């Protein structure tokens, strides 16, 4: 079991650029979550998918953020255009029903 | 709505001493409770979970937690800590999504 896989692990970009973060959940897990971690706000849930369908996106900060899950093995989180305040560590997590999440290693995003 | 309060932002302790990290939760429905650990520059690792049954839950690395419904608490304990336990610890509550507390930094000193 390779666990949740995220790429890239680190991303440095300039303000205004588009950023795409990728996630491969654990096979067989039907729920996928995107979290953001910052010093100021801690761990925030951005969006939750169940069976590839977005169920709760109330945590998505604004229209600049979008997430997709085209199939059970892949999800993306896109920021367009990026801003310095988007700098954070972005975690993807997956879980089977009723269990705790398995987290990926995270993507550290720095927007200059 | 659900929420989690971790009362201590940092807990310093000497090696081989016992430790308790406090967690209180609020929820109007039955929930599952979790403790996660985050080592520097790493993701979150599940330490233990309470889903149902026995209120004393044992996890990895010698940690355990006790679910107390009347006090809405889920405190994490370890009888003897090691230097390697230095990390950030997060309590979380879940119905379908995990809601995290603000974290407690455990600092183990030699």
How does this structure look, described?
The complex is a heterodimer of chains A (112) and B (110). Chain A is built from no helices and 11 strands. In chain A, strands 2, 4, 5, 6, 9, 10 and 11 form a 7-stranded mixed β-sheet that branches. A 4-stranded antiparallel β-sheet of chain A has the order 1-3-8-7, with no helix packed on it. Chain A is globular. The mean pLDDT of chain A is 93. With 110 residues, chain B is mainly beta. In chain B, strands 2, 5, 6, 10, 11 and 12 form a 6-stranded mixed β-sheet that branches. In chain B, a hairpin with a 4-residue loop joins strand 8 and strand 9. Classes of the chains: A mainly beta (112), B mainly beta (110). Chains A and B meet through strand 5 and strand 10 of A and strand 5, strand 6, strand 10 and strand 11 of B.
What structural category characterises the helix and strand content of chain B?
Answer: mainly beta
Mean pLDDT of chain A: 93
Described by its quaternary structure, the protein is heterodimer
Order of helices and strands of chain B: EEEEEEEEEEEE
Query: How does the major sheet of chain A shape up?
Result: 7 strands, mixed
Low-confidence stretches of chain A: none
Largest sheet of chain B: 6 strands, mixed
Helix content of chain A: under 10%
Q: How far is the N terminus from the C terminus of chain A?
A: 36 Å
């Amino acid at each position: 079991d390779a666990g949740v896989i995220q790429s890239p692990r680190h991303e440095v970009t300039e303000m205004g650029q588009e950023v795409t973060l990728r996630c491969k959940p654990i096979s067989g897990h039907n729920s996928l979550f995107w979290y953001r971690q910052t010093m100021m706000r801690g761990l925030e849930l951005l969006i939750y998918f169940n069976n590839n369908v977005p169920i709760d996106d109330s945590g998505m900060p604004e229209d600049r953020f979008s997430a997709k899950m085209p199939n059970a093995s892949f999800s993306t989180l896109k920021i367009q255009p990026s801003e310095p305040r988007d700098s954070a560590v972005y975690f993807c997590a997956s879980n089977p029903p009723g269990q705790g999440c398995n987290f990926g290693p995270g993507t550290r995003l720095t927007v200059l | 709505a659900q929420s989690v309060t971790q009362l201590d932002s940092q807990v310093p302790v000497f090696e081989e001493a016992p430790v308790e990290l406090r967690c209180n939760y609020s929820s109007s429905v039955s929930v599952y409770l979790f403790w996660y650990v985050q080592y520097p520059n790493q993701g979150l690792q599940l330490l233990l979970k309470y889903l149902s049954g026995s209120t004393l839950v044992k996890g990895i690395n010698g940690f355990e937690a006790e679910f107390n419904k009347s006090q809405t608490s889920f405190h994490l304990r370890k009888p003897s800590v090691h230097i390697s336990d230095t990390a950030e610890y997060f309590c979380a509550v879940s119905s379908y999504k995990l809601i995290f507390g603000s974290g407690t930094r455990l600092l183990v000193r030699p």
